[in-house]
Amino acid sequence: MPYDFFQNKECEYFPCHPGADPETFSCIFCYCPLYALGDKCGGNFTYTENGIKDCSGCLRPHKRECYGEITKKVGEVVQLVQRKKT
Length: 86
Ligand code: SF4
Fold this sequence. Notes:
Elements: E1 46-47, E2 53-54, H1 67-85
Antiparallel strand pairs: 1-2
The chain binds iron/sulfur cluster.
Iron/sulfur cluster (SF4) is lined by residues 32, 34-35, 41-45, 55, 58, 60-61.
């Protein structure tokens, strides 16, 4: 898929995760669309001592091969928003 990978090497934070490979790091999901799923996102998160979800250790949205699984789960975010509206 030509649209499953994008890099912005001009970004001052690129690559914005410690230890990430700058050759394979994708910026297409600069902010992970699954964050709102909390502990159901399926990623490698931790919680800070203040209870904030910390995604620093998760490279899943920045891997080209994960594009499909991320977009598949976006429907769960939509359902979450719909449930909150009712
Ligand atoms: S970056 Fe990883 S841990 Fe954070 S919301 Fe996305 S999938 Fe979950």
